[in-house]
Amino acid sequence: MPAMSRYNFRKAEQKWQAIWAERQTFAVKEVEGRKKYYVLEMFPYPSGRIHMGHVRNYTLGDVVARFKRAQGYNVLHPMGWDAFGMPAENAAIENKTHPAEWTWKNISHMRDQLKAMGLSYDWSREVASCSPDYYRHEQKMFLDFLKKGLVYRKESWVNWDPVDQTVLANEQVIDGCGWRSGAPVERKKLSQWFLKITAYAEELIGALEGLDRWPERVRLMQENWIGKSEGMRLRFPLKHAGGGAGGEVEVYTTRADTIFGAAFLALAPNHPLAGELARKDAELDAFIQACNRQGLSEEAIETAEKKGHDTGLVAEHPFVKGRTLPVYVANFVLMEYGSGAIFGCPAHDQRDFDFARKYDLPIRRVVAGPDGDASPIDTAPYTEDGTLIDSDFLDGLGVEEAKHKVADAFEKAGLGKRETAYRLRDWGVSRQRYWGCPIPVVHCGACGIVPVPEKELPVELPEDVRFEKPGNPLDHHPTWKQVDCPTCKQPAQRETDTFDTFFESSWYFLRFCSPHLDQAAFDAKATKYWMPVDQYIGGIEHAVLHLLYSRFFTRALRDCGYLDLAEPFAGLLTQGMVTHETYRDEKGGWLHLNEVQRKGNNVVTAATDKPVTVGRLEKMSKSKKNTVDPEAIIQAYGADTARLFMLSDSPPDRDLEWTEAGIEGAWRYANRLWRLVTEPPMALPPAGTTQPATLGERAMAAHQATHKAVAAVTQDLERFHFNRAIARIRELTNTLAELDGADGADGAWVLREGLETVTRLVHPMTPHLAEELWETLGHGTLLADTPWPEADPGLIVDATLTIAVQVNGKLRGTVELPRDAVQADAEAAALALPAVAKLCKEKPVRRVVVVPNRVINVVL
């Protein structure tokens, strides 16, 4: 028996990648009147090596791009590099190399890795955000935002990463730590540049409803982050505990209805009144300093123990004469939200409850449960809807009604006013680092802040920098920051902060529309043709950061006259993570996959056979040593096998478990398909042979299965059900493999039709293999240029159907009927079933209900 042939993926992948590159198969330009489709995966940071998350992300995008191209769309599918950031500076220190050299070297290596995956990118549109040709345009945008009043500079409390020595936006603080360094974040007061994203809060939240091709989860995350709330700003007169006026303080609340349950007031640690009091109170000053080490993010505040410092001031209750409320400075109050002060109602808010328990403050219940339950609050606050109690003129009202009535009372007394507030804060874009885009302004002692003239852009980074000192290398540079003022020509200093790297990623999708344009960031005509991005693909971790900033940035550019567009991404797909088991040795240390082996039902160390603890599935990460090198997989199995496994084992929005069995299974299928085409069970007629007039029973069944597969796979790809699509293609492959010489010439024709169809359907997933099979089947054109197959509507509908038969609603059997059978035939077939006939002898038939092509119900 001759040995089975194996698909030579190395030869095929090199061959077809070279052909696509030589013919510039995926290079595109605007074609007026032709329908377009812009598919984009979030561009990567050039760390030096792709990981399995990259492979999955870019494979998903490539399937969409190739599928839409085959459907006749003019497809833009570009790639670039999010190339600024702290890791390059850290690498410069560790490896004694320049960040630019490290970055460009990494880009070169990662570009080669991505090309080895066979991705259908238009590489002629490649951009890198660290290139002056790129960032000169965002410097111009910043100056235009400044003119428009969308940029300002102020001294503010910021999140300070003590390891990276830079400022972090609230969104970049995860569980109280810096999103890159993992170091606990501190509060620090610095002069910072801000973009007025809050000016767009209402528009950003209102437009979410129209993003119907975005995951509901992402829209909800953005809605919660923007955090629109209807509340009140209230004024409380203050006095010292021992007597004497102490001014007044404003608080913001969304629960003014609970004012009769108020037990205390709390100020943010950086509230002006707290700072004023701390000048005379050393203990308060020390408390504020401790709070500053906590970080400003809500995550840090939520997880921290609720602490406060009694200021000695008390507030007068607005409606209860003689009742006073102690005023604290508390670590859980944010200066940036509302007024930076709150009143606490412990019975109906978890944070207030925790605080009251710690400091032995009264807990007054003022909202009863729906059943009238007014039992004391002992173990947890009551936060559901209910009826007001012990609240004077609010008693008996529901919560919403009480909010309106108390608001009227506050406003009538001149002690408050209704106000809409947002959790969203303005975007601080200043970063104290070298490897970022310079902020194009000059600080002049006489003229103040002066924009760099447009003709002098870009302001480029100096190349001769040193990283020995902590902090910003641009601050330490002996000459770069020394410059004459553009206005008065006197000595001045450049701004040494650089932009947050999210600045670059907030508009790169626009640059891809005309990446080589010098005089502007993008061509208006090209942008109008390509935008918005039809399908954007990336991780759920960017739901707030990048996606919200990009939505804001697009609107800001619109208002500065750059384009006529509000939403940059029409469709969004958030892919799941790639996971793997984790392994630890006897001492708890992480073990890499190649350091363990399976022996029977046990996992042991490869070197010493010592027991290994197998952990749960977790996202692949270097720290836990559960990574698989994509380059090694591609070398061992080929890019198409890696792509096929990434698509076939799990829906794209769910996590994917990487297993050896999974990749081996994908490799076996690729070879099986290869052999079915190169060694068919019978000789195939030439390409283009006319369909026989009649087909045998088995050939007809395979012919119909082929067209059903086309319809189903097309629908699956439209819905991003890639794993289902692959399952259907495998089913069709199994059907075709059953044809043989006994099926004659008509069977041979159907086999060719089926193999050509499988090849075309699998092409978006395994493009190199599909091109090789297409050529083997006798075609001289590229499969990448071949239209998507179309199903014959007459062949995807079964001539006969299996119909359920019920008696009094209970299933008693099934019958085979022609599609759209007439009522009389359907009734006769149902009543002839033995189980039904037996029951009809016992009771008379009242009527027979026939739902065409679905069910027959005999009513006795």
In summary, what is this structure?
The protein is α+β, with helices and mostly antiparallel strands and 860 residues long.
Cα separation of the termini:
64 Å
Report Rg.
34 Å
Shape: globular
Describe the biggest sheet?
A: 7 strands, mixed
Please tell me the overall pLDDT.
Answer: 93
Unreliable stretches (pLDDT < 50, length at least 5) are: none
Proportion in β-strands: 15-25%
The helical percent reads 25-40%
Number of helices: 26
**Tally of strands:** 39
Query: What class do helices, strands and sheet pairing give?
Result: alpha+beta
Descriptive tags:
860 residues, 4-stranded parallel sheet, alpha+beta, 35% helix, 7-stranded mixed sheet
How would you explain this protein's 3D organization?
With 860 residues, this protein is α+β, with helices and mostly antiparallel strands. It has 26 helices and 39 strands. The strands form twelve sheets. Strands 10, 11, 12, 13, 14, 15 and 18 form a seven-stranded mixed β-sheet that branches. The mean pLDDT is 93.
